[in-house]
From TrEMBL:
The entry's keywords: Membrane, Transmembrane, Transmembrane helix
Sequence intervals crossing the membrane: 49-67, 79-96, 137-158
Protein name (Swiss-Prot/TrEMBL): DUF2231 domain-containing protein
Leader peptide range in chain numbering: none
InterPro entries: DUF2231_TM (IPR019251)
A Pfam family the protein falls into: DUF2231
Presence of keyword Transmembrane helix: yes
Residue ranges constituting the DUF2231 domain according to the UniProt record: 46-164
Domain of life of the native organism: Bacteria
Length: 172
């Protein structure tokens, strides 16, 4: 099966509808529909903030692998930690966007979130390793999983147009 067909298949995975609905309703209940919601979703910018923030953990983690391969192990480890520190705000704004998705988009969004959570767990595990080889292995696995999560996020943004033209009347 091609990557394109696999990404489209995620839209039909109705087994995740119940948990995705629970998460969306919980976020809407906590964030509401007021200023906080508009702030987190990027109404002030005219498009979602989440795609902008994801560049920080992704960039930090990819660069950490490059630095590690070039022998700068301490700097690589610091970048992994920077990526982990940037993850919570990235997740927060992603959840605010998720709460407004339709059913098919939520299917992809939940898989995207699950993959990226697993990737963050791999990077966290890399910081806990005492041996350099095992830390490098966790980072490599994390990059592979992050790539899959990123592909799902790209599909959500570009193929499913999540967050497109959502705020013409919103102001913060």
């Amino acid at each position: 099966m091609s990557l394109r067909r696999t990404l489209h298949a995620a839209e039909s995975l109705d087994a995740v509808d119940a948990p995705a609905g629970v998460v969306a309703r919980a976020v809407r209940r906590i964030v509401g529909r007021g200023r906080v919601d508009r702030l987190l979703r990027g109404a002030w910018l005219g498009h979602p903030v989440h795609p902008l923030l994801v560049t920080v953990p992704i960039g930090a983690w990819v660069c950490s692998a490059v630095l590690d391969v070039s022998g700068h192990h301490a700097a690589a480890r610091r970048l992994v930690v920077i990526g982990l520190a940037a993850t919570p705000p990235t997740v927060l704004v992603g959840l605010a966007d998720f709460s407004r998705l339709d059913v098919r988009q939520r299917r992809v969004g939940l898989l995207h979130a699950a993959g990226n959570t697993l990737a963050a767990g791999c990077f966290l595990a890399s910081t806990r390793c005492r041996g350099h080889r095992s830390a490098r292995a966790w980072v490599l696995v994390g990059l592979v999983v992050l790539s899959a999560g990123g592909a799902l996020g790209g599909h959500l943004s570009y193929a499913q147009a999540a967050g497109v033209h959502r705020w013409p009347a919103d102001t913060v």
